[in-house]
Each structure stands twice: as structure tokens, then as C-alpha cells.
Amino acid sequence: MTPSLLRILVAPLVAAALAAGATGAAAATGPAGPAPAADGPGAVRHTASEEPSSVLDYWTAERMAAARPIGRLLGGAADGLLDGVPGYGAPDREHQADGGDAPVWTGGGTVARTTGRVFLSMDGRDFTCTASVVRARNASTVVTAGHCLKDGTGAWASKWVFVPGYDDGEEPYGRYTAREMLVTPEWARRTDDSRDFGAAVLREGDGGPVQEATGAQRISFSGDHTGRVRSFGYPARSPYDGRTLRTCSGPTHADRGGTTARGMSCDMTEGSSGGPWFAGFDSASGRGTVVSVVSFKYASDADTQYGPVLGASERRVFNEAQDA
Fold first, then answer.
1. pLDDT digits (tens, 9 = 90+) for 282-324
2. Other CB atoms within 10 Å distance of the CB of residue 285
3. How far apart are CA 247 and CA 268, in angstroms?
4. Which of 40, 190, 225, 260 has a C-alpha 20 to 30 A away from that of 167?
């Protein structure tokens, strides 16, 4: 468990903002699978109140271009004020940091459709993240990082829209607004970086549910991603600009900084937060099993990204989302 995000940064950020594989991932969940019996607290949930048309109208090309990637750690302390960038845990932990070598994904396939950019507002500012469409009974569920939905113990996101297959300004599958947002209770109540996971239930687009337009990836909550994984995201802080889907791949290792998350070598910057980690990824088809999402980096190590181990708490979030 990590300290609250609200004790970390705040005042310096406000000033800046105003001035500027486990190839055999077991227990993969599909839409036909039975929901497990609840064995603990369920998801913390929020219903979006905005009119979908107003959300879609809000996100002009200019606002999308100006949206900031979530998670730059600037330092300082604020003892409970709510003016910091969303999603921080421990003081030396940031939800995405500097880097530069993650290649553009040019392989196409399902992953190029199911992965998309997220645009959202939180605490009066506009941000960007990444999310992924996964197989769900309602055909309308995406998974992402908890800090892309809720500012830890603080505010929920608003004006939340998912753009699957985003590529250099092109939106081949349209936009989908969120109607429900869900995060783990550990994230909502303690800003626990080990449980930085959430799901959004999307309203249908012109062609129906998002899954019918993009396809969907499998997801596993077995907690087994100790092997090689491949991650995807839309890093948006320099040297990246968030306009193309990037990827990293490699083995994972345990975090020695106090969480149960696992790390992999990857220098994607902020904006990739919430992007999927796949086990058993097949480059030819662009399919795999989601076993984690991009969560945080340490300020002292820009070359390693971390993702939560998906277990019982995350499964409850997902099951509540896919039945919403």
C-alpha cells in the first residue's frame, strides 16, 4: 500500500498548469464466462452526468491537441489539497516519466483497433491517457489505469471519451463517451499503486457497441504475468506527441519499491498510462491476453514502467463493469 497522492505535489503543478510473457495466461475472461462470487468489497463506481453530445462537442481538435498527459511529478507537498496532477502514490513515484525509444506499432491487427486514446477533464484541466477494449458481456467495456478515471481519493474524471484506433488525428472507429467509471476500492480510498486499475463502460456509437466496431482482447485475472509481455500506449510528453501508438516488449520483474506491481523496460512517457500489457501476444494477428495496464514509473528510473498484477479486486471491477 502507498501513501495518498494528496500529500505529494500540488502547488508547483498548479502554477505550471496555469502558466502552460506469460503466454499461457490462465483464466482469461470472456463475455460468456460466469461472474465469480463476490469475496470482498466491490468496485467504487461513478455515473457520468454529462450529456453525450456536450462531451463530443467539447473535444475539438484544438482541445485534444492541448490536453496534457496525466502524471508529471514536480515535487512539493500540500497535505490534502486537491490541485495536483491525478494519480500519484508515493512521493518518488510518478504515473509516467521521461524517455524516448519506444517504436511506433506498424503491425496493424486487432491491437491497432482495440487500443485507443482517452481524453478527459479532471479538476478543471484536460488530460489524455490510453485504454483498451476487452471482451465483455455488454460489448462496451474498456480497461485503463485507475488514475485515468479518478484522482485517487479525490475527484472523478469528466468529459471522458475513448477514441479507438486513433492515428495521427484520424479516428477510424469514431468516439465513445463513458457512462460508468469504476476503480478498485484500494485505489479510490488509499491511492494504492498496487491496485491502480479501472474500467469504463461506454455508450454505444452510431454503429452500436464499441466491441462490434473494433473487436476485443482477452483479459486475465490470474495474477500470472511473470514472463514476457508487450505493452502499448500513446505517450504524449516529449519526445513523443501522443499521435501514434507505441509499443515496448520484454520480461517483467517484481517492484522493489513497496508495491506488488511488476515492472518492464520501457521508456514511454505520460499519456501511455492505462495502455494494455499483453501476455501471449501474437504480432501477426495483433491479439493477446491483457494481464496488466501501464500504471507508474519511479522518478529515479525513467526506463522502467510498472503495472498492477490483476487479481480478485480487479476482477470484481471488471465483472461489475461488464454487467453495467
1. 999 999 999 999 999 998 888 999 999 999 999 999 999 999 9
2. 12
3. 8
4. 225
**Burial of 40: CB neighbours in 10 Å, binned 0-12, 13-18, 19+:** exposed
Cell reading at 263 = 515492472
Amino acid at 24: G
CB 305 within 8 Å of CB 248: yes
Residue with cell 505529494: 8
132-167 pLDDT, tens digit each? 999 999 999 999 999 999 999 999 999 999 999 999
For residues 264 and 250, the answer to whether their CB atoms sit within 8 Å is: yes
Across 70-84, 94-108, 135-149, the highest mean pLDDT is recorded for 135-149
Alpha-carbon separation of residue 6 from 79, 118, 179, 189, 191 (angstroms): 6, 23, 27, 12, 9
d(CA 265, CA 297): 10
Peptide bond into 239 cis (omega under 30): yes
CA gap 98, 276 in Å, rounded: 19
pLDDT tens digits, 7-20: 222 222 222 332 33
Taking phi over 0 as left and psi of -120 to 50 as alpha, with beta for the rest, 124 belongs to left
Q: Give the ranges where the chain is alpha helix by DSSP (H).
A: 11-19, 52-58, 61-66, 111-114, 185-190, 210-214, 312-322
